[in-house]
Design goal:
Layout (H helix, E strand, L loop, with lengths): L16 E7 L9 H7 L2 E8 L15 E4 L14 H15 L3 E4 L1 H9 L4 E3 L6 E5 L2 E2 L1 H4 L12 E5 L1 E3 L9 E2 L7 E4 L3 E4 L10 H7 L1 H7 L3 H27 L2
Parallel strand pairs: 1-2, 1-3, 3-4, 4-12
Antiparallel strand pairs: 5-9, 6-8, 7-10, 11-12
Helix pairs in contact: 2-3
Length: 248
């Protein structure tokens, strides 16, 4: 088995908790989540790039928190991107072990697929891109997402959506997307939206997703204004959600 080792941006120490992030795009990284994890005692934080790094023999026993980040490909696109199958197998192993797992956007969709739920494009080719709050369900208000009940806007950026795994309730919704989050007991959390994206680095997203934004006719200046307006609130909301999820 391969023991993951910290990337060049990690804090490297010999003790403390470990986190492993699976990344699909260089700029869709841990963002605001990295300092939150460091503040909560995660001293070894590793990033592996899906499709580049070998995921088949990662030793999950050495990982206290597995994070699956977002990306522009579909959770069902393994015929085009075979590395998704190795990633899916890793997620399935993590769920079977019932150990902490966080999925963001594509990561949440892959979690849903691993649990037997469908993932498919939103109706009529719709995309949900921009800053807006989520509406918590009753289950959501009793979950780690409770800090979002005050209407803090979060970043939405997706054209696919997941169905709910059998027996698992929706935690949040928006007018365009009825399932924005779900949890598996208290060890796994899937978020369709982005709490981790750093508003100070939004320009990387605008450049990296230029084609998608142009096709969807998303006004870039509005995204920039909203990122500047909601940055402080996002940082506070992410810290509060992770404190509840990680129970530390």
């Amino acid at each position: 088995m391969t023991t993951v080792t910290p990337d060049r941006t990690s804090i490297v120490k010999t003790t403390g908790k470990t986190a492993l992030a699976l990344r699909h795009l260089a700029f869709e990284d841990l963002g605001l989540l990295r300092p939150v994890l460091q503040a909560r005692g995660f001293e070894r934080i590793t990033t592996l790039d899906v499709g580049v790094d070998d995921l088949r023999d990662v030793d999950l026993e050495t990982v206290d928190l597995l994070i699956v980040l977002g990306g522009p490909i579909g959770a069902y696109d393994d015929a085009l991107y075979p590395a998704l199958l190795d990633e899916l197998a890793l997620i399935e192993r993590r769920i079977a072990a019932r150990r902490p797992l966080l999925g963001v956007c594509l990561g949440a969709q892959l979690m849903a697929r691993a649990l037997g739920a469908d993932v498919k494009p939103m109706p009529h080719g719709q995309k949900e891109i921009g800053f807006a709050p989520v509406q918590l369900t009753d289950a959501g208000r009793a979950s780690a997402l409770a800090p979002l009940a005050d209407g803090q806007p979060v970043l939405h950026w997706h054209g696919d959506q997941f169905a709910l795994p059998q027996g698992i309730p929706s935690l949040a919704e928006t007018p365009l997307c009825p399932h924005q989050a779900f949890a598996v007991d208290d060890f796994a959390l899937g978020l369709q939206f982005h709490l981790e994206s750093d508003p100070a680095r939004l320009e990387q997203w605008l450049i990296g997703h230029a084609g998608e934004l142009a096709q969807a006719r998303v006004p870039l200046d509005q995204l920039r204004r909203d990122a500047a307006r909601h940055g402080a609130g996002l940082r506070a909301a992410l810290a509060a959600v992770m404190a509840r999820f990680l129970k530390t």
